[in-house]
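Give me structure tokens for this 487-residue protein.
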Amino acid sequence: MPNPSLQLQLTQKLALSPQLQQAIRLLQLNRIELRDYIQELVDANPLLDHEQNVEQAGEDREQVSLDAEMAESRKAEHDQDSSTDNYESDQWQADTETERWADNASWSDDFSERQIADTSSNSLREHLLAQIRLAHFSELDATIAAAIVYALDDDGFLVDDISDIRESLLPEIQVEDDEIIAVLHRVQRLEPVGVASRDPAECIWVQLRAQPSGTAGIDLALRLTRDFLNLVAANAYEDMQRETGATPENLKQALELIRGLEPHPGARFDNRRDEYLVPDVYVRLNGDEWVTTLSPESNPSLCLNKYYISLLRKSGGKDADYLRGRLQEARWLLSSLELRNRTLLKVSQCIVNTQKGFLKDGEIAMKPLILKDIAEQVGVHESTVSRATTRKYMLTPRGVFELKYFFSSHVRTTSGGIISATATKARIQILIENEPQKQPLSDQEISVLLRQTGILVARRTVAKYRESLGLGSSSERRRAYRRTVEF
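Here you go.
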């Protein structure tokens, strides 16, 4: 029988205080969401008020004095112990669960959904989130699944990389890419099947794999989707028959199965909504320097209500406990707002300092930039920069841009340097706009021309950038030019 023994073990765990949770929440809100959220807190907290409301009210000092005297007389009825309370203390404990600062009504897991998500009952996002809440997801998997849903576009495709989703979960949740991919596969099986796919080919593949076993033509359909989807799109029957060796009957059966699927899983959902871009940051040229300023609404000019503070000093018992709690909540909010504005301003100024060329000469002068570069300059974590730049907009002399727009990958140059992918796209668009209409440039020819200017871009990369710009291939552009001439 082993001898009993004592073991001492040290572990590190990340514990987020309510104040830090609130600071993180405020940072990820844009201007309009911040205004609504603050108004909700002001309505619920008597010790918070807008400065303009205080000025318009013109506080009646005589009435305050009278109320203070009445509070003093009521206070005498309480035990003497209540008179020794420290009303300035930052530590407090409410008597009831509903009076706690971090109560369930304010900090439930679905708070961001109620405040931020599209409230349309017909939206794909709400449809998927409802399924996630009803499905047998663990708490961790449900959080990852929600992050995946928020990374979908209106057609239901996953537009963010797995690494981007992982970084958006930091620092609260630390997971590996394999864990996110495992949850992604489960999300893809939600209704509509194939949602959260990276491209139409994967979407069709997921839908085919979800078909009942023994479905006629399923094996050939899977092979066509995996290897010859371009031939399917081009209706190249002879080429498909030659490549697969299938009989005409089997090929027809497989093609009917593929064409009966939906390559755009979000197409039947009404995800369209009117969006009004409201800048959170303004950029102007002051002499030779670009200066950033926050929108006036980013600083809501909150203040503490002096009337209730005077009551706090004169009251005791449960009333004092309640007011102390709300006072601490108000102090945390003011501190979190100051931290949010300071972080947003620093991040915006660093972006502007890096992208001065863009502000002066446009996309062709855009520099490569990643979250890590800004995080090192500001001295914060990459996830903080991600929150500060998501759904925040900057008004520049060239228009309104999301802060995320200024981040882009890079390509190599012949001299060993790097150049922004955005600048490379701008060069590709210029080449296509000035190409001879009778002989449009192929992707390979564009790659050669870019190499002559010192930019190393492969043909397939040129094709990817061209498609992202909404430009057709050389044959498609040639046909468009011919139709223009005939017209």
